[in-house]
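Subgroup meeting minutes
Present: P.N., E.W., G.H.
Scribe: E.W.

1. P.N. recapped why we're keeping a running log of single-chain structure predictions: easier to compare across weeks, and new members can see raw inputs and outputs side by side.
2. G.H. added today's entry (579 aa).
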Amino acid sequence: MVKRLIGCVREFKTPTILTLIFIVCEVIIETFIPFITANLVNQIKAGVALSQLLKVGILIVGLACLSLCCGGIAGFTCAKASAGFARNVRHDVFHKVQSYSFENIDKFSSSSLVTRMTTDVGNVQMAFMMLIRIAVRSPLMLIFSVIMAFRMGGMMAMSFVVIVPVLTLGLFMISRKAMPAFRNVFRKYDRLNETIEENIRGMRVVKGFSREEHEKAKFGTAAEDICADFTHAERIVALNSPLMQLCLYGNMVFVLLMGSRLIITGQAGIDVGQLSAMLTYGMQILMSLMSLSMIYVMLTISSESIKRVSEVLEETPALTSPEDAITEVKDGSIRFTDVNFKYSAKAKKYALWDIDLFIPSGATVGIIGGTGSSKSTLVQLIPRLYDVTEGSVEVGGEDVRRYDLNALRGAVAMVLQKNQLFSGTIKENLRWGNPEATDEELVEACKLAQADEFISTFPDGYDTMIEQGGTNVSGGQKQRLCIARALVKKPKILILDDSTSAVDTRTDALIRAGFKDYIPETTKIIIAQRIASVMDADMILVMENGRIAQIGSHEELLKTSQIYREVYEQQTKGGEEDE
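Output recorded in log:
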């Protein structure tokens, strides 16, 4: 886990190493200064000449300035290293997520992935910064100060032998109590982000049903829950400060009492200089311990974040390209052979079962069925968004598992009912289908998708900016833009998953008519609720309970399929009544 994160340092190894070097230099100088100061105090007591005092004074000032420079440079290199490290972690996490299949994303949830790439990466960055600076400085300062304390104070330094174990035990008990609370906080952060994401995505629904107060209350409950857990954890961690103060001032009182007594009685060769040095080293030792306790607390908080980020980086994508992958799809023919599928190995029920189907290249296929009949699940197996549980799916005469994923998905274009447009111009959104497409090709695709007419009414035309999520265009306009984006791709297989539900029947018919002339060799699969959208298809599949109930043309299904006939009669009767 830690090894995987250390690999994210990469090109920032140099500033990381420089930070360690300058920290070591700073610590050595800082622990050497009290030693010189102690000798200076003793020389002043002995009546040394002023010229000698000036030399020693200049040396102390010079060492202090050098220590300051080392600390400043270490701070600069540490900031560069930690910021670069965090950038690489975000880069690796984001790129890893891009390689995930839907199965992997379902495992984490989108809100959890957002939290891991923001809050958790921030905590990991803070932990890294403390590790390469404070976590190096404090132990070195502690070791060097203890050595110098025994050299200067002799047996008085034995007080640290008592204080350090007491402090260590106290910190261990504090972290043991605080860790579960921090772990709960990060889980609740996921739920809070999920609430925010859900609210923003469904803002129109929230306002349409006047549920703002309900959403505020739901968010407030989640926020209060996090606040309560954080408060509980921070109260435990806050015990660290009084424990440190008790040890710090207890040691100071002990050194002053024992040191003063030894100086007055003239025992153990202790003088004023050694006493002042002992106080300084005692302060350094306990400040180092305080810093170590801060690091320990921070690592306690960050350990859960480190674990969560590592989970994303170490997750194995459920779908990968084979080593000898096929990089070209011959045609748009599709064959399902003995296909059974379920979304999870733990699931008791198959989402699809007993699927045997052949679709010749260039054919137009309609799919109808009730809600939950697994229409969308069926077509998602074609571009290998999921792998079959049993059986096989072939495209162009080859099992989809033998293709390079990019090559397979590059040959398949899917237009979903819930379409997604991205921030940018209309042209930029259309070129998702083909980055090299010319302006003429974009216009032609939009004309076929019946989108050119409304685009021309915009003041900026094809350079009109689309807001995040396409909120500045209607549902029907969004669907037509997404259809045009798929047409620009000129795929071997085009899948329309109820993607004309927001357009009128006339526009729907014009779009389908355009397919015949523009992409005659492309296999077209149309999932629809309206019989009118599929009645001209070469074959129509009627889905029921995860299986294909009937296959045939419009005329054949009217005779053989009760489900199809009932839907047709209801829709036809509804249309007649409207007239």
